[in-house]
Amino acid sequence: MVGALGGEFCLVCGADPPLYSDRMCEECTRKRIKLVEVPENVPWVRCARCGIVEIQGKWVFISEDKIWNELIQRHVLFHKNAEDVGLAFESQTISDRHTLLHIQVEGVVDDLLYTEEHTMRARMANGVCLTCTRRAGNYFEATVQVRSSGRRLSDAEFKVLRASLDDVIENLSDDPMFFITSEGAVTGGYDVVLGSKGLARSWGRHMVTHYGGHISESNSTVGRKDGIDVTRLTLLYRKPGYDLGDVVKWKDNYWRPASWSKDGAIMERVDRRERTGATWRDLENSNVVCQMDDFISVELITEDSSVGEFLDPQNWQMTSIRLPWDYSGNKKLLIAKIDSEWMALQHLGIDDSKVDEYQIKED
Asked: What's the whole-model pTM score?
């Protein structure tokens, strides 16, 4: 608008230029423009049982700082023309349910810099997440049955297998359905009931990779939901009766499993250089004659090209033993007692991780 003398002026108070938004002077513009709109109170929900938080309809594990960031992003509205916006906040706990968020904001609107301070109250409400609801109702999607073949596993072996489930859960994403409904020892093995089929399959693959064996699956239909069959998975894992490094009798000879393969194990013969693959079916009739836990490491006192002598730790007498086929002159020898006789063993990669244990037994 042009005044009587041809100049522009503020539409509100008549002040002279410069003019800004809607042809108002700076003072009138600042009175009418707010950089942000901040609600006085905002709600959020935390599960009263496990402490996870509901964010936009999803239950997630999240820290308090991230909760406040999420609430600010969702509820604080900036002016549509704001540029170069900066925001900082500080939280102040008032009670278990109430937290004050002191917010400082600055930004530019129509070339004018605005700096504002606001306070927003975050009000926590208790809820119950889907996971806890299902846990309370003993919900489950899969059962993992841990069993053995060839021999009965010890309690210590079952503990190692069960502990591997905790490692799998820790390394997987934070899926709220990755929970254990129930677990316990049963005749011949150990059963774990899980809230997720995906977790059951991941654990099964982990055990096969690290401990050998094989898995089989079966599904049962328990109902229908939204026109789709609801099924439950039963996963049977059978751990072989031997571990890597043990001495087993197979095909009338002594062998040591050197590594796991997709369908079985890679076997190394004890008395000569021979390496072959064997399937789980091939190894069904193998027998464990000595486990790695029973191996000891001894130091040779004398030796020739094929035989060495050492001090038997059981009776402290000089004892002769045939040197292993891969003997390289090292005075240390790994031995196992098989059929009341000491047998020297070839070196496998897994032996390197057991050297200290062998030495403790010898001492």
From this structure: 0.63
